[in-house]
Amino acid sequence: MSRNNIKIFSGALVCEGSKLRGDITVGSGTIIHPSATVIAEAGPIVIGENCLIEEQAKIIHRVPFDQQNKENIPILMIGVHNVFEVDCTVEASKIGNNNVFEPKCFVGSRVTVTNGCTIGAGCHITEEQILNENISICGAKCQMREGLDKPAPQNLQMETLLKMLPNYHYIKKPNMKQQV
Amino acid sequence: MSYITGPEYVRYACTCGLLKSLPNLYFCRHCSQLRCGFCVCPEVDSIFCGKCSENIPSAEAKVKKNKCANCLICPSCQQDLSTRIASKGVVNPDDSKSPAKKTYYLSCYFCGWNSRDVGIPDQTSPTGGWPERENVHSNRLQELLDSYKQIMLSQKQQKENDKKKKFGKFVSYTDRTGITASALRKRIGIPDIPHAMLRKPKLPESSTATTEVEELPDKFFTQEIDLLEVTTIEQRLLQPESQPVTVDKLFPAHKQLSIKKSLRCRHCERNVSKPEYNPNSIKFKIQLFAYYHIPEVRLVKVGDLKRGQPCEIIIKFTNPTQHQTTITILNLDLAEQERYVEEQQMMDISENLEVLSLQFKQPTSLPSLPGSQPSSLLSLPPRQPHLTIKSRKIKQTVNSTVEIPQSVFILPPRDDAAEYDDSNDTHNIEDDSNLVIWRKSNKVCIKLLVNIHEGETIGEEVFCGFTMDHVYTNIIAANFENKQPQKLNHKVRIFLNLGKM
Q1: Which of B97, B125, B443, B498 is most exposed, with minimal Cβ within 10 Å?
Q2: Which Pfam families match (chain A) (predicted)?
Q3: Chain A to chain B Cβ contacts (< 8 Å)
Q4: What's the whole-number average pLDDT of chain B?
């Protein structure tokens, strides 16, 4: 693995115990729990503002299986207000805003996630597809349904975490100024 | 947990001849026999709603079609729906201090469905008053129900009339004169009104078959199907009266009630499992699982399975009871079980013959006593027990034999504290070192030799079996009569799947 190049904007809360590899940019207001993993293997990862990445969550930017070199691989852009819950694995090629990845779900590298999607607990999504807006997937059969609205943001939880986490964990210092 | 759900390598033969793993078996303390799910009689103890934990009497549940009146489930994923609060402005916009107006809607935390998706208006009270959907066929269904009830009534009446006729030829004095009531009415000139019960029940209008069916719309051929719009089979069958085809017609359904069931031994009619009545409790009043009474056998290690040479297997015995037990390994002896089953069958046949002969005797011994009960009722034994399960032969064949050890071994009682106590691991039990290879608290590992039969091919699964004879301490009799606990030898046939050769 090449050297790490991690940019953390002020206002973001990245715990020291998290595992960040490669070229990663963390937007302000984003919380990364200890023992969460973000690996920018194929190319840079840009995480938007106010995302929540919980324990054991894994966000991996992989080189596709049918590709040998790392050329022509776009940046993995993750939008704002996304929630990555405990022990989810997300390898999606593009992630929009306001998505929720519930515990132990798996999203493969051929999937494009747009906005307001909910991937239910334990659901495995691997086929090449573009998830439309406000899709929610749940159950053992990965049943899909389209909602009217995006899932509610977890503002209260984020506020609590912003207060509580620095009391018990070492925090990586933000090295970038507030985005304009 | 994988032990409970995983493949069944060790199976116990139930008294009825079926093979089950230990957690699937019960042990009737009164008969001192193993009972499987088929040898017990399930009974509904109580009916309750799993969400609001309310006990519902069975008559009420029947009226409500076994659905909870208050709890609703998600029509999309069949999980419980929960009520959510939404504030909608203030009650009085002019007064700045007036409280916020609260409205409630239903939402599913699992799949994200909510009542606003299908246009159900928000409610002002949290307990609901959610609009029920009218069944379009309800009139027709009611009509059918009513007419069948009438048919039932009139048939009942018919039967009673038939019975009455046996009493005597003449029911009333008018009958004696040869003029019936209806004939009398006709003679006087009053229109004849048949008896209310004798009236022919009005049959409902029969539905008519039609050959004209609506043409299939072209859109099914021309338009691409949007799976997000179409409901699944489960979603449709959840609402049998409307069976919505598209997701925008899904309405919340009432939650199905659950039951608590008790199990009764079919032989002695005593309970082997009885849950507590309170729906909040998950405990049992009576819980005679074999897991708590019969020593548990687990495969620890299986050596090389080769034909022509003995294979060494190590199995572990665990004593779950509070009493010391002695275990003897005996021959499987399937022939004995077969003999037992045949004996039972013979007994059954002879019993049946007795019953039959009784039935034949009855009519001759009781020559047409007026008003007597039908003879078939008399011939029945005073109280027929529940349907008893006949034992059958064990179907499992074994293709290897276990070399039966000469010595026996002792299993100490279970001691929950022993797990935390490392000091006293010394026990004064003299073991046959050829048999017992390891021992700790209530667990013992023994070594057995297995010979695979001649003529078995490679790749075949090897089964072996033995009879475990253990001393079972029955404390029921002791409790009743203040006697010493009764000790008896209980035998179980155990089958092991050793894997492929």
Answers
A1: B97
A2: Hexapep (PF00132)
A3: 32
A4: 79
